[in-house]
Design brief:
- By secondary structure, this protein is an alpha/beta fold.
- The protein has two domains: 13-109, Rossmann fold (3-Layer(aba) Sandwich), CATH 3.40.50; 123-213, 3-Layer(aba) Sandwich (Rossmann fold), CATH 3.40.50.
- The chain is built from seven helices and eight strands, in the order H-E-H-E-H-E-H-E-E-H-E-H-E-H-E.
- The protein has helices at 13-23, 37-48, 66-78, 90-100, 146-159, 174-183, 198-205, and strands spanning 28-32, 52-57, 84-87, 107-109, 132-137, 163-168, 190-194, 210-213.
- It has a four-stranded parallel sheet with strand order 1-2-3-4, with helices on one face.
- Helix 1 crosses helix 2.
Length: 214
């Protein structure tokens, strides 16, 4: 079990999935994300049934904790006969190759598409004024690099008094962020917005002179 997802019906799913493939005249099965249980099942059964398969990975996973060790072993099994893989960055490609023991030449890098014109920073909407706003919007988890953010915030705030952090998102790393803000008295320098609906992401990003979105 990982992220409230489980493998509940390994073989019972096969007849239903086969029926869907035939009914919809499917030729290629494309699954996303390591922790997507349905995606892993579909990839495994598709190869069993002789269909072409593609897998796209979006995140980085470790090699040390129990959850990642078991997840990586599962990935080695489900992707052992994959036709091709896609990663969203070169770092993600290297991570996937190591975790799933896949030949790097069988992994293509296709970055997530972004309409830069829509997300161009707007100085007129910058608040607080006369600051360099660093905007970070992501799920506040280890895999999203929140630990690195926690480590650098006090150092950057100490060295650059004009820097202001705007952090959107929620997750298990929110508590350490709140503790950090209280410990270093950064309530006026670090703004925690909590979870954001997609339609409000742009309004937050345009407040930054420089921004990070993961």
């Amino acid at each position: 079990m990982h992220d409230e997802a489980i493998f509940p019906m390994f073989w019972f799913f096969l007849p239903l999935f086969r029926k869907i493939l035939i009914r919809e005249n499917i030729q290629i099965v494309h699954a996303h994300q390591t922790t997507a249980v349905l995606g892993q099942l579909c990839i495994l059964h598709s190869r069993t049934l002789g269909y072409k398969t593609v897998f796209t990975d979006h995140s980085l996973f470790g090699f040390a904790d129990a959850a990642c060790i078991n997840l990586n072993k599962l990935l080695k099994m489900t992707l052992s006969d994959i036709d091709h893989c896609i990663s969203v960055s070169h770092t993600s490609k290297e991570n996937l190759s190591l975790r799933a023991a896949i030949n790097p030449y069988n992994i293509s890098v296709i970055p997530n598409a972004v309409d830069c014109n829509r997300f161009r920073p707007d100085p007129s909407k910058r608040f607080p004024l006369n600051t360099i706003n660093i905007v970070y919007i992501a799920r506040l988890t280890f895999r999203k690099g929140t630990d690195l953010l926690i480590a650098v915030i006090p150092k950057i705030c100490q060295k650059f008094p004009e820097v202001h952090f705007i952090i959107g998102g929620d997750g298990p790393k929110r508590a350490p962020l709140e503790k950090l803000i209280e410990k270093h008295n950064l309530k006026d320098r670090v703004e925690l917005l909590g979870a954001l609906p997609h339609k409000k992401v742009r309004d937050v990003l345009v407040r930054g002179r420089n921004y990070i979105k993961i």
